[in-house]
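Weekly puzzle thread! Below is a chain. First person to post its structure in token form gets bragging rights.
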Amino acid sequence: MIKNSILITAALVVGGACTSEKVSETVSERVGDPQRVVVEEVHTRPNEVVQHEPAQTARETIKLAAGESLLGVLRRFGVSAAQGVALVHNMKPWLDLNKLATGKAIQVTQDERGALVALSIGVRFATIVTATLEEGRWKITESTLETELVNKHVKGIVGRSLYSSAVDVGVEVEVIQKAITVLSHRVDFQRALQDTDVFEVLYQSTELHELNPLSKKSANHDVAFIKLTVSGREHVLYYYEEDLQSQGQFYYADGRSVQNFLLKTPLNGARLSSRFGHRKHPILGYTRLHKGLDFGAAVGTPIFAAGDGKVIKANWGGSFGNRVLIEHANGYRSLYAHLQSFAKGIKSGQLVSQGDVIGYLGSTGLSQAPHLHYELHKNGRAINPLTLNTSNFDSEPLSGPNLTAFLQTVARVEAQLKSSTISYQSKLALNHVLKEN
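Winning reply:
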């Protein structure tokens, strides 16, 4: 099945090929166990969606409330404690049912008496696991939802913020974060952007052919082209991978890498509330050197690693509250303070890459209001991140066969952009999708 999708307003979707995955399972039985799990092996034809339709009179999708457990939900539908424990055990190869997040969607099917006969839950994008209760035993089946590849071309004005405007026209959050992270190498998002500046992005995503409440609607967002016009100056970037073993990067059209040694700002959508230099401390009341920058934003805003490096500290830091200290190359260190919490896996000794989420903005320690305190040090001395010049550490531009291959990539992207017809609206109000067979 081939589909073309056109997103009208500030977005255009062109091309699209259906994809499908064969469902494969293993069969495992624990002999002698009255609650043994039987995993059904299901084979599907290309583009076929597996459906499980036990005898039923009602099916509903519920979401876990705060403080609610799956076992508590099961009891409401007549599932015994022993059967609930067996289900948790049998589902472990796919998902730990004891650690479901608040808001997790679960689909339950009941028979004519109101008793639960099946439970379905999403375990990853486009993958659903269904547990069917048959004669007191759970039969577990994994199925894959039909997906399609869709190319999206989006253009619009920055408006009140780049993030909010892109969300308004349906750009996936992962794509927005990628674009802002990449552009943060060259653009100061706290000072440089104007509400009339223009952004543009071309990317491909894998999307569900039909929406399903148990799975997010899209995944695997591969960004090929980013353009941001700031006060008349264009930043035009193309994604290129030198080979299958190397990590791809974004480059200007002449082969120069956009990636800088350190990001100018380590978070999105924030305002610069306090600069580097001497100031009167708002809590202590006396004047002293403010060794970094303060960024005001909402509690929980993701904080990024400013550059590749190793986490030296990720713990309580007294007046800094929860803080992360990262050691970079060339004698640089970066400090992130007053965090609400640390990102998963962030601890002393952990290696991080530029743009990785290391924590979330908060107001811990000696802090009047939610903000990020960000410091940069060179050989032990605090320096102003906004005036940092790391051009000496920029990577060499592409050359030789790599440059030739990259220029071919640029030509392909430009041809795709020219073939797209964008319905551009300054207010980015309309969001309608047309699909043609």
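Puzzle host: Confirmed. Bonus trivia for everyone else. The mean pLDDT is 78.
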